Amino acid sequence: MKVTQGHPLFRVEEVSFRNGGVRLSGSLRIPVASGPHPAVVMVHGEGPADREMWGLAPSDYFAQRGIAVLTYDKRGVGGSTGDWKTATFHELVEDVLAGVEFFKGRKEIDVRKIGLWGISQGGWLCPMAAACSSDIAFLVIVGAPSGTVREQQLQRVVHEILARGYSREKAEEALAEYRGLYDLFEDPLQSDAQVKRACRACQAQWWWESIQPGITAEYFFEMLSGTLRNPRPESKIHPDSVIDPRTILPKVQCPVLAIYGEKDRSIPPETNAPLLERYLKEGGNQDVTVRVFPNANHVLLLCRTGSQFELRRMLCDEEKRSFAAGYFEEMAEWILR
């Protein structure tokens, strides 16, 4: 175990923990003040995210406020074994729960106050974890969807195309072609080779760069194959083949803070926020807080259009990043309350 003094208010340890045969490597931030401390496992968005999550996670800020934080490299990234491209949602949830178990073995942690912070894809994974584990005390979910993967992906097409300045007619044209690609993915009679050819054909279309900026057809195929793949037969985490917040969110009984950016084109708050709140409360959860930050995008960076195309440029230039005012503070204060 390697310990570094990263900040006068917390120390950083390089740690690892296991989910079956997969070793997950990460960083543990422990406040230097006397504990036991509340704790948060940070849950990634889609793709090959490492423990720093492109600098989008409030890890250091939480630790400065007296909250222990575990961040880790996703499967097959950095020091972690396995392969995120072939992992199902269920396996990724098992990784999250393995992080919770890791915290339970640390004397500095208040085991009654272990929660999850998740962004984007983490907005599916965190509720799945909380719905099947009483060890999770709270959720903070950023840009969380209220529909299935298919529904969310199709929903965002029109918003992304319009954000790039195209007409509604062009947006509907792109939506029809993108929906056809999903139909192929879900058709059991289609071979992988046929679907990959369809992905390459779509990559050549005028709308692809607006919806999947910088993403190749091969990468898209691998990413979507994982999110749509059925769980292993032995998995006990929501064995349904379709991950649907309509059935998962009513099972979440812990306090939830859901945060959205007003200009999020991937998961528009005007449709997702009220449904997420409704589904949670349908299950009897009355401790639900929803907050929409103005002029912010999918990851709560201040933006002009909120499109994925604009976001990709921001991720490549740290100097252009500015988080919505009060975003980190509100999350930390809510957790501590």
Task: Name the features.
alpha/beta; 19% strand; 337 residues; 12 helices; nine-stranded mixed beta sheet
Topology of this protein?
Layout: E1 2-7, E2 10-19, E3 22-31, E4 37-43, H1 59-64, E5 68-72, H2 89-104, E6 109-119, H3 122-131, E7 139-142, H4 149-163, H5 168-185, H6 192-203, H7 208-211, H8 217-228, H9 245-248, E8 256-261, H10 269-282, E9 288-293, H11 308-315, H12 327-336
Parallel strand pairs: 4-5, 4-6, 6-7, 7-8, 8-9
Antiparallel strand pairs: 1-2, 2-3, 3-5
Description:
- This protein is an alpha/beta fold.
- A 9-stranded mixed beta sheet has the order 1-2-3-5-4-6-7-8-9, with helices on both faces.
- It is built from 12 helices and 9 strands.
- The chain folds into 2 domains: 251 residues, Rossmann fold (3-Layer(aba) Sandwich); 79 residues, no CATH class.
- Helices cover 38% and strands 19% of the residues.
